[in-house]
UniProtKB/TrEMBL annotation:
Keywords: Membrane, Transmembrane, Transmembrane helix. Pfam families: DUF6113. It comes from the Bacteria. The chain crosses the membrane at residues 27-46, 52-73, 80-97, 109-131. This is Integral membrane protein. InterPro entries: DUF6113. The lineage of its organism: Bacteria, Bacillati, Actinomycetota, Actinomycetes, Kitasatosporales.
Length: 143
């Protein structure tokens, strides 16, 4: 029986095991990363237009730092997606116009580069982020 518990008492592969709910610490870390992504989105929205093109690069670099930092801190792709989700939700909320006619983003190319570039970088960081590896000694790798 490949991949199942063949009655020997040995556990099957990692994918065959049921998912466990996240620990309170991991859930708190993801909530914190979500809020960090929201703060970076607000700061990036203000900086990207102020010092173009350096502000745009600084804002996107801050976003990438949060995305990859979250992935490496939690050692999972979910750690990259938590700040990315906070960033995207905040940026989308900042692009909506208010009843008074005010809005934070102008119609320039830098704003669109910040919006779409940040979303593309979020996907790239979540894809390339840290992937879970077996614990040391739990599997024979390369032997």
């Amino acid at each position: 029986m490949s991949g199942a518990q063949g009655g020997t008492g040995t556990p099957g592969p990692l994918l065959a095991q049921p998912l466990r709910p996240p620990t309170p610490g991991r859930a708190l870390a993801h909530i914190g990363l979500f809020l960090l992504g929201a703060l970076i989105a607000i700061a990036g929205a203000l900086v990207q237009a102020a010092w173009f093109p350096g502000g745009l690069l600084l804002a996107l670099a801050g976003a990438v730092g949060a995305f990859l930092g979250g992935a490496y801190a939690t050692r999972s792709r979910g750690g990259a997606m938590a700040p990315a989700a906070g960033w995207i939700v905040t940026v989308i909320l900042l692009t909506t116009s208010r009843p008074e006619g005010d809005f934070l983003f102008g119609a320039g190319g830098g704003s669109y580069l910040f919006l779409f570039g940040g979303m593309a970088l979020a996907v790239i960081c979540a894809t390339l982020g840290a992937v879970r590896q077996p614990r040391p000694g739990s599997a024979r790798l390369g032997k």
